[in-house]
Design goal:
Length: about 180
């Protein structure tokens, strides 16, 4: 019985395309280059930074950086990744400073009597926006060092710092407390 009679277009056991695709050949349309993958990761990192997802941005940059170091011809890409990492690090540090000042505000607003706010020259019922503006530097950064200085000079905190130093706890000189003092 012939193949045409059985409804088959090709002979059984023989390829319809004997000179076809070689084994192991990649689909060119779906294959991305290393450079394209790196650029995609960098774009994703920038998008995450813009949306405030700093941890995701950091992870995308780490992946990007790893791919860049795999390619010895990617010196320009290495510079780009290094610059992006610096930008993300700056954004992470800004976020940490904002979180620190927000924590100061939230603690005093929730549990305090407003005396810390008065200590820094603000009314006891200050809003978060006013408190943030008090420590603002430029358009979008916070002077966390000044906030920590204000906290260290706040009388209840300053008194506790003095107590701890008198007890021998570590200070900027590198002195440390003995184990029996830590247990108290």
């Amino acid at each position: 019985m012939s193949n045409a009679m059985r409804g088959r277009q090709f002979v059984k056991g023989r390829s319809g395309n004997p000179a076809g695709r070689p084994k192991g050949a990649k689909n060119r349309q779906r294959e991305t280059t290393l450079e394209q993958e790196i650029e995609a990761l960098q774009a994703r990192a920038i998008e995450h930074v813009a949306l405030g997802r700093l941890n995701e941005a950091r992870l995308a940059l780490i992946k990007s950086f790893a791919l860049v170091w795999c390619d010895p011809s990617a010196a320009v890409m290495r510079r780009n990744v290094t610059q992006l990492i610096a930008v993300v690090q700056t954004e992470i540090e800004k976020d940490q400073r904002l979180s620190l000042v927000r924590g100061l505000y939230d603690d005093e607003a929730a549990d305090g009597d407003g005396s810390f706010f008065e200590h820094v020259g603000l009314p006891p019922d200050v809003s978060w926006e006013e408190f943030r503006e008090h420590y603002a530097v430029g358009d979008d950064d916070i002077d966390a060092e000044r906030a920590c200085g204000d906290l260290a000079t706040y009388p209840p905190i300053a008194a506790r710092i003095t107590e701890l130093r008198a007890a021998g706890f570590a200070d900027n000189s590198g002195r440390t407390a003995s184990n029996d003092q830590v247990a108290k």
